Amino acid sequence: MRYTLNINGKSILAERGETLVDAALMGKILIPHDCATGHCETCRVNVPYGSVDTAGTAYGNTVLACRSRVVGDATITFETAPELQKVVGKVHSIAELSDKVVEVCVQIAAPLHYRPGQYAKVQFAGFPAREYSFAAKMDQEDSDELVVFQVKKLRQGRVSTALGDRIKVGHRVRLQGPFGNAFLRDAETGPLVLASSGTGFAPIWSLSKALVKSRHRRNLTIVTGLNSPADMYMLPAFRWLADHGEKNVTIVSREMASGLIRKGTPDQHLPDLDQTTSVHVAGNPNLVERVKQKALAVNAHCYADPFTPSQNRMSLWDRLPVWPFS
Ligand code: FES
User: Fold this and answer.
1) In 3-state terms, what secondary structure has residue 309?
2) How many CB atoms lie within 10 A of CB 186?
3) Rounded Cα distance, 22 and 14, in Å
4) Is 171's C-beta closer than 6 angstroms to any atom of ligand 1?
5) Is 219 domain-assigned?
6) 21, 54, 220, 305: least CB-packed within 10 angstroms?
7) How far is it, in rounded angstroms, from Cα 218 to Cα 277?
8) What distance in angstroms lies between residue 32's CA and the mean position of ligand 1's atoms?
9) Which atom of ligand 1 is nearest to the CA of 36?
10) How many domains does the chain divide into?
11) Which CA distances in Å does 256 have to 225, 234, 262, 270?
């Protein structure tokens, strides 16, 4: 049986039971996707009209297009992001932001277009690929020739422990991206809440810096969670935001309150949300889930990629040899 899907204004016929991604491809429409297994959130789309079999992926009126299947006529919309690209580059700088977080700048051989809030797959030559959110420079202006990542140092991290050691300035890098669905929507104009914990601050910083540079008129609130006050590596970012008129920043720590830092977790310090609010959240998966549920309860829009990009641990796969770039 065939049904009509209207995808971003273009109507196509689709077979019952096809995934939305496959149906769209048959109609020569590319819904951005990556894992195709329901994990990465890159393929999340809106279904404002009609019905689809959501396969348990519904959040508000959004679904994952790689899992959801055609069961009737439906309208599907999604905001476009830059197409997938592959570029090579080399490490331009490695700087310790704290004893737990390293800023890595990669000089790229060709422009890599992405939207703040998205992430890339990054492979240092001789090491397994990792997923890191695009960040922004902490203390300088950004450059189109550089992409910036904030990497959490893990005691057993095969990549993070090599940064500054076996991976030095000049090390070759491959990048693939952009991925992810948690980027700013141009059409949204309501209040914006950006919440993070740990190195989930990387995409939040990228989003907030881009927003400020766009001379926005939105009501921006940033809530940043730390494990302990000693983890506040993002102070230069907060200074930059304050210098540009963004003072609605709350810093919280589970451990204790001190000075500017309030006690608690970011979800406990969110402002009032309503259906006009957009929330972006990144970091600890439990925090992401709690914030998503709070947003869902009042029909606020919530965008989150379901992982902490720079916290990948060594897997069995990682223990296998990795060939250097040719
Ligand atoms: S492509 Fe659908 S969740 Fe990854």
Assistant:
1) helix
2) 9
3) 9
4) no
5) yes
6) 54
7) 10
8) 8
9) 1
10) 3
11) 12, 18, 7, 18
311: pLDDT strictly greater than 80: no
Q: Is the same domain home to 306 and 276?
A: yes
Residues spanned by the domain of 228: 192-310
Ligand 1 centre and the CA of 21: distance in Å?
9
pLDDT per residue as tens digits for the range 112-165:
999 999 999 999 999 999 999 999 988 777 788 999 999 999 888 999 999 999
> Closest ligand 1 atom to the C-alpha of 35?
4
Question: Is the CB of 30 within 6 Å of ligand 1?
Answer: no
Indicate which residue's Cα is closest to atom 3 of ligand 1. 38
Q: Is the CB of 66 under 6 A from ligand 1?
A: yes
Segment 264-270 mean pLDDT: 95
Q: Is residue 270 part of a domain?
A: yes
Count CA atoms closer than 13 A to 236's CA, side-chain side: 10
Total-model pTM: 0.86
CA distance 201 to 93: 20
Q: Is the domain of 95 the same as that of 158?
A: yes
Kindly report the CATH number assigned to the domain that includes residue 93.
Answer: 2.40.30.10
Whole-number Å distance, alpha carbon 35 to ligand 1 midpoint, is 5
Separation of 23 CA from ligand 1 center, angstroms?
A: 15
Q: 71 C-alpha vs ligand 1 centroid, how far in Å? A: 19
Looking at the structure, do residues 304 and 315 belong to the same domain, yes or no? no
- Over 60: is that where the pLDDT of 316 sits? no
Cα distances from 82 to residues 121, 177, 284, in angstroms, run: 15, 9, 27
Q: Report DSSP letters for 259-285, one per residue.
A: TTEEES-GGGGPPP--TT-EEEEES-H
Q: Which two tokens stand for residue 163?
A: 């940064």
User: Within a domain: residue 325?
Assistant: no
State whether 315 and 175 are in the same domain: yes
Shared domain for 204 and 282, answered yes or no, is yes
Q: What CA–CA distance (Å, rounded) separates 47 from 20? A: 11
Q: Of 49, 77, 105, which residue is a domain's last?
A: 77
- 231 CB near ligand 1 (under 6 Å): no
Residues 107, 112, 116: CA angle, nearest 5 degrees? 105
Instruction: Give the position of tokens 């102070």.
Output: 235
